[in-house]
Amino acid sequence: LVVLILSVPLLDKAKADWNSSELSRIRVSTATGLDSLPSEKATSSGTSINYIINAFGIGYTTSTLTIDDSDVKVKKISNVLDLSVMTGIQSFTFQAGYGWLLSHKWDHPSYDTATNSSEGGSGFFNAGVDLGLFELTGGYRVWSIVHNVNKSWKNSNANSDDKDQLAYKEMYLGLGYIF
Which has the closest alpha carbon to 97: 105, 87, 107, 111? Predict the structure, then answer.
């Protein structure tokens, strides 16, 4: 009992020196809201998964933006490969990174969307709170994508390509497993 009582200050010091970002973890997040496109009726959904070891992370994120434009619903789907760094103090972690665009597809009921090409990606910031074996995370992601728009109508011979800039922001909530 005496040894246990005398070791309490040592445990407190070890806990104060512990950095939760030094542990490996898997984080899974889902988009919880759209923070832009105020002039349009738009909704977004998405998921993100990250594996982090020794403060460096790799992940995959997908986002679907649905724009309700008058009578037409336009759906834009983007997928990115995430690379990130993470740091932390005591039971809090902070992660920042960038996602390189792997693919971007969009669907419009009237336009020919088969010939589009795209470039861009998304930057993100996440914060986490250590809950022991698990971690509660929240984040913010900014998307910026440029893609070609073939404005010819389906089944027509007209060709008119144009560039479209897609920029929007999403908020994410998630859960991490620390091991």
Answer: 87
Tokens 């913010």, residue located: 140
Query: Closest Cα to residue 103, out of 151, 48, 141, 147?
Result: 147
Q: Is the pTM of this model over 0.85?
A: no
Name which of 176, 177, 164 is nearest 69 in CA terms: 164
Q: Are strands 72-89 and 56-69 parallel, antiparallel or unpaired?
A: antiparallel
Instruction: Render each residue's pLDDT in the chain as its tens digit; 179 residues.
Output: 565 556 555 555 544 455 555 678 999 999 987 766 666 688 889 999 999 998 899 999 999 988 887 778 888 899 999 999 998 888 899 999 999 999 988 887 776 666 567 889 999 999 999 998 899 999 999 999 887 766 655 555 555 567 778 888 999 999 999 88
